[in-house]
Structure formats: structure tokens, C-alpha cells
Specification:
With about 375 residues, the protein is an all-beta fold. About 0% of the residues lie in helices and about 40% in strands. It has one domain (about 5-360): Kelch-type beta propeller (Neuraminidase, 6 Propeller), CATH 2.120.10.80. It is built from no helices and 41 strands. It is globular. The termini are far apart. Mean pLDDT is about 90; it is low at about 1-15.
């Protein structure tokens, strides 16, 4: 059933400096694998649906992909991957390859993966993982290994959740299990790599949300609990600033948020972020620019409320500023190129739900 729809198309900010991306060869989609290579934004897979409802469990999974070069303002198709269609896979960029593992297709959680090599423009398969199929897991690249922890399987929000993890080494095409975590099983979590540790915080298990976290050191194969923070239990966005993990917004089972906090792993301490100018939201685009945390789009819950507004947080000034408005959407892909914030795809609902195949760039 569709409830009240609020669509913000444009608005906000003093200068409308979003520029449209070139037309994509891909059909509209949300929650695909997305990475920035240093030259191109790679987009693969994702889900598509239309009508009165559009959830990850109802979406038709996709198995094609494309690469966008913002300097040349053009797209190119990626070769066919050796993977079945899926959305919400765990995805990392290694510096030369995109690793895609897991994800879901309707209620099925997938446990296979593949690696796309930018130089050869080819995919190759991965050895079998010691993990059951899942989506919504923490996934980071350490410089040597892909680390995956947690996640779940079954439905829109996972009915079964996990608290195990594994490390994959692409050079040897081999996996190893991570040591047991002190955290309860959960999904809808984000992982951040600090250069030394993978930090995970928050997440869901059914209707229960979490406000605790832990840090994993692959050098010692050991976990440590992190200090309790000022944020209420939720699944939040997480971006590494080089000194702090910046958490903002996100949602619990029946609530979305517009507050945030910063965690410093060196001191194991938190600080609250100042009040933002944004409405509570989840499934938004976010990125760290090297100077600011960018937040844009998303919506407050599953009621087809979408925003075309955003804001930027500067940790040095400890203040927010409005971003210019653009076309509202929920669940878009986003990357920071070093110069531009690229946003593409997502869900919109002018009269009924549609998945979008357009995008735009914002240059701060």
C-alpha cells in the first residue's frame, strides 16, 4: 500500500551546480555494486521494480554493468560477469580490481563472487567462501584482503543474521575465517577501514537495533569492543575521514534519524556532530571528500518519501552547510572522484514507483 508521498525535485542551496551525467546504457536500478577506480565509476547489478511497492526482496535482480568516465563524459558497457543477477552485494575496490561477493536475488542470499580487472577488462571467479550467503554485511579492503563480517539472509530485512566473517586474498584466491567477534549477529551494517582496523557499529537483527560496535585487527586476528557512543541504536552511514569514523543518519526498525557522531579509534572516544539542517533519512548518497562529509537524497522510511536535498559537514569548522538541490531519489549509487560527487540511479515515484537511470555530478 502506498502512503503519503513527498517528492522534493530541486530546491535547497544558493547555487544550483549539479551537472547531468551523460545518458547511461543501463536500465534504471537501485542498490548495485558501485566503486570509483580513480578514473571511472563502475556500476554492476542492482534491482529494478515498479508499481506501488519496491523493496529489495520484490525487485527483479540485474546482472549487467557499465563504467562512467566523468572526464570524457561517456559510459562503456562492462563485459558479462560470471555471476547470477543480484542486488546489495558486498563490494570493494582494490586499487586495480572490483570484488563483488554475495548479495540477494528475491529471498535467496548468494554466497559466490567474481572479480573485475580494469586493465584486462575481464572477470574471473572466486573460490568458494567459508560463509553462508548473505547481504548487508560489513565489507572493507585492507590493501591485501577483502574482509567480510556479519550480514543476513531472507527477505527485505534479514530473517536470519550472522556474526561470523572471513578474509579473502585475491592473489592466492583463498579464504580464511576471522576469529569470533564479541558482537551479536546483525545485518545492515557498514564497515570502515582505518589503515589498521575494520570498525563495525550498529545494525539490525529483526526489529532489534544495536548501538554497539567492535574493531578487528587482521594483523593480530583479534577483535576489541569499542566505547559506547552517543547515538541511539540504528544502521547508519559511515565514512572514514582519516582520523575519525563519521556516522550520520540511518534508521532503526520504525524510525529514521538526522543526527550523527564521530568515533576516534586512536583514543576510543566519541563526539556528537552538531545538529544538521536535514530531515531524518536513510538510503542516501554519502561520501568523504577529504574535507567534508557529503549527504544527499534518501528518505525517512519505506513510505515513499524522497528528498532532493543535502548538506555537507566540515569537521574542522564543526559545522554544516546546505548543498544545492537536485532530483529526489532513494537508494542511489554514489562515489567521490577527488573533484566531483557522482550520484546515479535510485528510486523515484512521480505517480508510481520507478527506478532511475540518470545521474548528476556536484563539484563543491
Amino acid at each position: 500500500m502506498v502512503v503519503a508521498i513527498v517528492l522534493l525535485r530541486g530546491g535547497g542551496g544558493e547555487k544550483a551546480n549539479w551537472a547531468p551525467l551523460a545518458e547511461s546504457p543501463l536500465s534504471g536500478r537501485f542498490f548495485p555494486a558501485t566503486v570509483w577506480t580513480g578514473k571511472e565509476m563502475l556500476v554492476w547489478g542492482g534491482g529494478a521494480c515498479s508499481g506501488d511497492q519496491c523493496t529489495s526482496a520484490l525487485a527483479a535482480p540485474l546482472s549487467d554493468g557499465a563504467a562512467y568516465d566523468p572526464a570524457a563524459e561517456r559510459w562503456r558497457n562492462l563485459p558479462q560477469a560470471p555471476l547470477a543477477a543480484r542486488l546489495r552485494p558486498q563490494t570493494v575496490w582494490t586499487g586495480k580490481e572490483m570484488i563483488v561477493w554475495g548479495g540477494n536475488a528475491a529471498d535467496a542470499a548468494l554466497a559466490d563472487g567474481a572479480i573485475y580487472n580494469l586493465e584486462t577488462n575481464q572477470w574471473r571467479g572466486m573460490s568458494a567462501a567459508p560463509l553462508t550467503g548473505r547481504f548487508g554485511a560489513a565489507a572493507v579492503w585492507t590493501g591485501q584482503d577483502l574482509l567480510i563480517w556479519g550480514g543476513g539472509e531472507g527477505g527485505q530485512t534479514a530473517r536470519i543474521n550472522f556474526n561470523d566473517g572471513a578474509a579473502y586474498h585475491p592473489e592466492t584466491n583463498s579464504w580464511r575465517k576471522l576469529s569470533p567477534s564479541p558482537l551479536a549477529a546483525r545485518s545492515a551494517i557498514t564497515g570502515v577501514w582505518t589503515g589498521k582496523e575494520m570498525i563495525v557499529w550498529g545494525g539490525f537483527n529483526g526489529d532489534d537495533s544495536f548501538d554497539d560496535g567492535a574493531a578487528f585487527n587482521p594483523g593480530t586476528n583479534a577483535w576489541r569492543p569499542i566505547a559506547k557512543g552517543p547515538l541511539s541504536a540504528r544502521s547508519a552511514s559511515a565514512n572514514w575521514s582519516g582520523q575519525e569514523v563519521l556516522y550520520w543518519g540511518g534508521g532503526a526498525a520504525r524510525q529514521s534519524f538526522n543526527d550523527g557522531a564521530a568515533y576516534n579509534p586512536q583514543t576510543d572516544t566519541w563526539r556528537p556532530l552538531p545538529e544538521s539542517p536535514l530531515n531524518p533519512r536513510r538510503a542516501f548518497a554519502s561520501a568523504w571528500t577529504g574535507k567534508e562529509l557529503l549527504i544527499w537524497g534518501g528518505g525517512p522510511d519505506n513510505s515513499l518519501v524522497f528528498y532532493g536535498s543535502g548538506a555537507a559537514y566540515d569537521p574542522v569548522k564543526d559545522s554544516w552547510r546546505d548543498l544545492p538541490g537536485w532530483n529526489a531519489r532513494f537508494g542511489p549509487s554514489s562515489v567521490w572522484t577527488g573533484k566531483q560527487f557522482l550520484v546515479w540511479g535510485g528510486i523515484y515515484a512521480p505517480a508510481k514507483i520507478e527506478v532511475l537511470a540518470d545521474g548528476a555530478s556536484y563539484a563543491p
